[in-house]
Automatic annotation (TrEMBL):
GO terms for molecular function: 2-amino-4-hydroxy-6-hydroxymethyldihydropteridine diphosphokinase activity; dihydropteroate synthase activity; metal ion binding. It comes from Hevea brasiliensis (Para rubber tree). Residues 1-254 form the Pterin-binding domain. The keyword Oxidoreductase does not apply. This is dihydropteroate synthase. The lineage of its organism: Eukaryota, Viridiplantae, Streptophyta, Embryophyta, Tracheophyta. The keyword Phosphoprotein does not apply. Pathway: Cofactor biosynthesis; tetrahydrofolate biosynthesis; 7,8-dihydrofolate from 2-amino-4-hydroxy-6-hydroxymethyl-7,8-dihydropteridine diphosphate and 4-aminobenzoate: step 1/2. GO terms for cellular component: cytosol.
Length: 260
């Protein structure tokens, strides 16, 4: 998955693709680099980013999104809309997006009926609240967090299935970062195979995140460690790997798949 943030303030690429033309050409670049899915978001979820209204979020997306869907679908790629707002998801679905990437994890009560009415796939991401509060949640041992996330996944899957969503459409994401300390994020990555117990595809969005801050501080210089982790995730059978620098991770995935 290639991350495309149409925002002025996303942590690692805020402002670069805020202009619709830049966003569309970057989507084409991500597809050319090998992305199977373009994940398009209009609201930064970075800690401390200003949260915006749903109307403002949609205003940012509505010009570029249909063009990105056209480019993707004509190249055999797919598009996901990265939002916690059901209304944005519903609008994006009318433009033919293939996934709703719900970083709110069904926080918006309207998201369930919107997804149930559609045929799109749904990525449900674990979080401790969006926007991420600067107050770190008090957490126990990392092992306990894994159990909590698995329980959380079970509850969300039950809610989706009860609303009539076919399990085949559901993808689970433990939400790397999003209020979790570096220690927790590394623990989740190392133990990602524990999520297989749910029997559903897993998505991981580790790209350029604070878990790499001990290795490098500049977002773009984190692309190399991101690609190394991408290779590890492939080895663990993770199905969706969400990154900013698709070409670098594609090299890592090609090497890893040759070795596995
Ligand atoms: N499913 C999913 N979606 C996401 N959207 C945005 C961000 C924040 O990253 P960015 O703003 O740097 O792209 N991370 C995730 C993630 O980890 N998983």
């Amino acid at each position: 998955m290639g991350a495309l943030n149409i925002t002025p303030d996303s942590f690692s690429d805020g402002g670069k693709f805020f202009n619709s033309e830049n966003a569309v050409s970057h989507a084409a670049r991500l597809i050319a680099d090998g992305a199977a899915v373009i994940d398009v978001g209009g609201e930064s979820s970075a800690p401390g980013a200003t949260s915006i209204s749903q109307e403002e979020e949609w205003e940012r997306l509505r010009e570029a999104l249909p063009k990105i869907v056209d480019i993707a679908h004509s190249s055999g790629a797919e598009v996901s809309v990265d939002t916690r707002n059901a209304r944005t998801a519903a609008e994006a679905l009318t433009f033919g997006v293939d996934y709703v990437n719900d970083v709110g994890g069904l926080m918006d009560p309207e998201m369930l009926p919107v997804v149930a009415r559609s045929k799109a796939k749904i990525i449900i991401m674990h979080n401790f609240g969006i926007p991420v509060s600067v107050v770190k949640p008090k957490l126990g041992a990392p092992e306990q967090l894994m159990e909590e996330i698995i329980e959380w996944f079970h509850a969300k899957v039950d809610a989706l299935v009860s609303a009539g969503v076919d399990k085949q459409r559901i993808i689970l994401d433990p939400g790397i970062g999003f209020g979790k300390s570096q220690e927790y994020s590394w623990h989740i990555i190392k133990n990602v195979s524990q999520f297989k117990v749910l029997g559903l595809p897993i998505c991981i969005g580790h790209s350029r995140k604070s878990m790499f801050s001990a290795i490098s501080t500049e977002p773009e210089s984190r692309d190399f460690p991101t690609a190394v982790v991408s290779a590890f995730l492939l080895s663990q059978g993770v199905e969706f790997i969400r990154v900013h620098n698709v070409s670098l991770s594609m090299v890592a995935l090609k090497v890893a798949s040759t070795l596995l």
